[in-house]
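Retro notes (design track)

What went well: tokenization of the new backbones is finally stable.
What didn't: we kept losing track of which sequence belonged to which structure.
Fix going forward: every design gets posted as structure first, then sequence, in one message. First example under the new rule, 297 residues:
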């Protein structure tokens, strides 16, 4: 994407920007009082390099900002279009065997998947496991829920939209999931992208008709309790290594924390969903559409 932008900007710079600068530079340099031609020529080159370098730096920063902003918006639109049929299939999964808070299926299916409230409803179902993990590992309240809302929309059978091998509530890659004690389907041990494994997972879900009971035993990244506990241990370890929750959330997404984690899209999103989760949690009426499922997990 950046190469495309530079390819467009280069001829524009050559035709319009640099000739204009050249004329201006000549006028400035003529006014300088210099002792000899060599010094005048050297100053001319230095000044030109600084100006041209400044222009490219400004353009680079502007392009970087625009790409992050509009690529995210475009990808969100594409993902939401692709999910129109997919989300309906996923919510046919039967989670009644899990000891959780049961949210009316009609309310879930009628709430947009990517909306704040839609993410909350789907994630809130697993609040007993989330709260237990946050208390057990000393995680900031609501942070684990915010991470789940960002990573998987609260859907235990979620797969990465790019088929990169990430799966489950915590969107574990196969190698990372195995490192935290989860049983992984297939032979992949990748901690980064593995599109072959990603396509294998999607075929697995279709073959087993999105049956949670079966899938959660084949690949424990789909297992609600086990994946949440593994994710909690992972984020806690990252917190210990990097000394702040923002750093930990950033490292969860990219391996190592960004220089300024708070400025990254992922950290901002997780923090936003964390706040929304806690706000909805305070205002929720458990007698209206929620009930306890006392079945065993």
């Amino acid at each position: 994407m950046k190469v495309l932008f530079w390819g467009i900007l280069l001829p524009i710079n050559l035709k319009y920007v640099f000739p204009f600068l050249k004329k201006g530079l000549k006028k400035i340099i003529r006014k300088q009082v210099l002792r000899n031609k060599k010094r005048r020529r050297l100053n001319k080159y230095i000044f030109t390099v600084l100006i041209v370098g400044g222009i490219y730096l400004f353009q680079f920063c502007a392009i970087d900002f625009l790409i992050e902003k509009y690529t995210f918006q475009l990808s969100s639109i594409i993902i939401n279009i692709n999910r129109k049929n997919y989300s309906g299939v996923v919510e046919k999964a039967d989670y009644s065997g899990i000891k959780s808070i049961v949210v009316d299926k009609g309310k879930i299916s009628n709430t947009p998947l990517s909306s704040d409230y839609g993410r909350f409803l789907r994630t809130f179902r697993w609040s007993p496991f989330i709260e237990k993990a946050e208390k057990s590992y000393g995680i900031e309240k609501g942070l684990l829920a915010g991470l789940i809302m960002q990573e998987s929309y609260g859907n235990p059978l979620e797969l990465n939209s790019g088929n990169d091998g990430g799966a489950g509530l915590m969107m574990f890659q196969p190698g990372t999931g195995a490192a935290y004690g989860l049983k992984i389907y297939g032979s992949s041990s990748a901690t980064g992208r593995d599109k072959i494994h990603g396509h294998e997972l999607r075929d697995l879900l279709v073959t087993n008709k999105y049956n949670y009971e079966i899938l959660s035993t084949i690949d424990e990244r789909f297992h609600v309790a086990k994946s949440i506990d593994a994710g909690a241990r992972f984020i806690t370890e990252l917190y210990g290594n990097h000394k702040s929750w923002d750093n930990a959330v950033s490292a969860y997404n990219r391996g190592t924390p960004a220089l300024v984690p708070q400025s990254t899209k992922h950290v901002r999103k997780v923090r936003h969903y964390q706040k929304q989760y806690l706000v909805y949690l305070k205002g929720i009426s458990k007698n209206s559409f929620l009930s306890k499922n006392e079945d065993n997990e």
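Added context from the reviewer: The chain has 13 helices and two strands.
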